[in-house]
Design a protein that fits this description.
13% strand; 5-stranded parallel β-sheet; alpha/beta; 8 helices
């Protein structure tokens, strides 16, 4: 089973990724993690990525695709995997289609956590951070015991630049513009849009409700 998890910043995608992969016993793979692993291992792919990043460039589709192909060839991916942050472009999606077919994997199941922009802005602009210990609070869900003060060291909490409302809205607009064509590529029977403005446990319950019948169907087909 191959899962593609999409969701804008602040949608809770990281939480759901951990819950899903722990439940299914498959690895979660992100583009950043893949590249860092190749760089740390000193592979030719990693060395190529390191030189590009050291010069301030962006790692292109060809190198990212090649890194992905290498990663999913590893034994821990034999039973499937979850991709987080890939594909980012239609070209990457088309490469992934060919790669999965070549390796005998089924078509991916797309889980899209959809959250209204105002809810995302509220979540992200409510974050505060301690400048000393770096602990993050959320004024809506995880506020400090004393308003504006870190529980651990008593420092005054700050709003990070990335969490300012104007910056958050621009990030979300950019995400939407980049992601919409990729989601359109996948909007068939394997595409599932999930409301992401609910509790993590409720969202995970909906995801398991989607996946369990598909897993049962796949198991029945293999038993024939």
């Amino acid at each position: 089973m191959v899962l593609l998890l999409f969701g804008p910043p602040g949608s809770g995608k990281g939480t759901q990724s951990r819950l899903i992969t722990n439940w299914l016993g498959i690895p979660a793979i992100s583009t950043g993690d893949m590249l860092r692993a190749e760089i740390q291992a000193g592979t030719p792919l990693g060395n190529a990525a390191r030189s590009i990043m050291a010069s301030g460039g962006l790692v292109g589709d060809d190198l990212v695709n090649e890194t992905l192909a290498h990663r999913v060839s590893q034994p821990d991916c034999n039973a499937g995997f979850l991709l987080d942050g890939y594909p980012r472009t239609v070209e990457q999606a088309e490469f992934l289609d060919r790669l999965l077919c070549l390796r005998g994997f089924p078509k991916p199941i797309v889980l899209h956590l959809d959250v209204p922009m105002d809810a995302l802005v509220g979540r992200m602009s409510s974050r505060r951070q301690c400048p000393a210990c770096k602990r993050i609070y959320n004024l809506l869900h995880q506020p400090p015991l004393q308003t504006g003060i870190c529980d651990d060291d008593g420092n005054a909490l700050i709003t990070r630049k990335d969490d300012r409302e104007d910056v958050v809205r621009e990030r979300l607009r950019t995400y939407d513009a980049l992601t919409r064509p990729v989601l359109a590529h996948y909007q068939d029977n394997n595409y599932y849009q999930i409301r992401g403005d609910r509790s993590p446990s409720y969202i995970f319950e909906e995801i398991t409700g989607i996946l369990e019948p598909l897993i049962a169907k796949h198991s029945a087909a293999n038993d024939r």
